[in-house]
Amino acid sequence: MSALPVDFAQFTAMQNKLQTLSRVLTTQAAIAQTPKELIWTLNKAKLYRYVPVLPKEERHPVPLLLVFALMNRPYILDLRPGHSFVEFMIHHGYDVYLLDWGAPGIEDKNLKFDDYTLEYMPRAIRKLKAVSGATEFSLLGWCIGAILTTIYSALRPDDGLRNMILLTAPLDFSKKENITFARWVDERYFDVDKVLAAFGNMPPEMIEYGAKALKPVENYVGNYLRLWDNLDNPQVMEAWHAMNTWVTDNIPLAGGVFRQLIVDLYRNDRLMQGTLMIRGERVDLSRLRANLLTVIAEADHITPPCQSESVNSKVGSTDKTLMRIPGGHIGIMAGSGASKRTWPHIDEWLASRSE
Amino acid sequence: MSDPQAESKKAADPLEQWRELRDTYIDIWAKATGEAVNSEAYAQASGTMLETYLAASSPFRDAQKKLMVSALEQLNMPSRADFVSLAERLANLEMLLDDMDAKLSQIYQLATAAALPPVPKAESEPSHRALKAEPEHSQPVPKTGSEAKSAAPRKTSKTAKKVTK
Questions:
Q1: What is the pLDDT of residue B8?
Q2: Which ipTM value was assigned to this complex?
Q3: Would the pTM count as exceeding 0.90?
Q4: CB under 8 Å to B102, separation ≥6 — which residues?
Q5: How many CA atoms lie within 13 A of A262 on its CB side?
Q6: Residue B59: closest C-alpha in chain A
Q7: Which DSSP category does A326 fall into?
């Protein structure tokens, strides 16, 4: 009946869209909501235990420790209620622990893989065993976390590690032509010592730029177009908001680790060659005997599949499985299809090995 | 069978065609830039840019650092280096305390086991106490429909391929 030339419903819809846009771009989503308790700290590192939802007799007796990368927040594993790997696992009867490395300060610039794998991890695991009462445990390492868990399990094979899950693990650096990062940090173009002399730790802004610059159009343009196209879709908006909160919440990477990552791994592939030395001990992957599940994201542009494919042939484990999942580096665990495409497979593999 | 009304609405929406065109253009652009950033030329150019930035900013950074240290000294204030040194010592102390705590727990358990009949072990470790409950997590999280769905069944989809066993 309106005789006005302007349809106010359209104005209202546009106003709502702009409000949503403003909210998701300027606020933090409610992430990491699964109840947990802090049971151990050391320097910036914290060990959390997620509050179990099943009675003890219904839970698997072997606890699961999650180890994420050093330069991102680990709450990607517990992104939001109803879409959280942690929540999924505790509802499937696992006693889940999370090792949060925290944000290194300038005083931590000399921390190396040596410290993380031989000082922090053994102590956190000792606490995990004391709290859970278990003598054996499972480890899940994702991205750089998978490097840490691999080094640790090769150096300390008798520490009670029964199962190990490696997610998008950058372990093999031999096929440099397939690894964009390897090209960028080539010694002809990138002086790691100059960068660390200037900054101490690797600044989070540079890490974020590095990750996004691998796919600049998708990350700097496509991501926001997707946001604009779905402003009236609350489900997509909530997912975008939570993921954007995580993506923009980066932390520095300790200088010592960054140097090792570039020099020992990206440039010289020392882990796979069996020449990586940690506190005077050679990291020999054949000493790793835990049951091993290696998960590869088929469309991973950060850790291309070639970086994880060969690890199963190098380890000493007799029970080893290689699993390929469609999706990207983060998407396979935190994308909208993760609860169907990835988590059930991990549960299925781990459940039978956690009794 | 598709809904004719929706079809006609879609056909009448000029923005839909524009979006399709835009997405096609974005795909082409993404492919081209993906190839560009994966080239030696890009690696060389980004390395040169970083080098230039570091070389240009280094004198200012060094001068600022010296000035700040000198100013703090004049004011009888501790410098960043002092705090770093303290933090390192604290981290070492934490490690020592952690080891002592573990040893004490072990001694306590052994003593308890020797003196008393066996006690349930799991979740009753004497030294274990939650250091801090996360405040925002004090309430149980209400289950959404998708959560209940993801938590309950143990169905496995066929998307993953097991290659080796």
A1: 57
A2: 0.82
A3: no
A4: A123, A126, A127, A130
A5: 20
A6: A198
A7: S
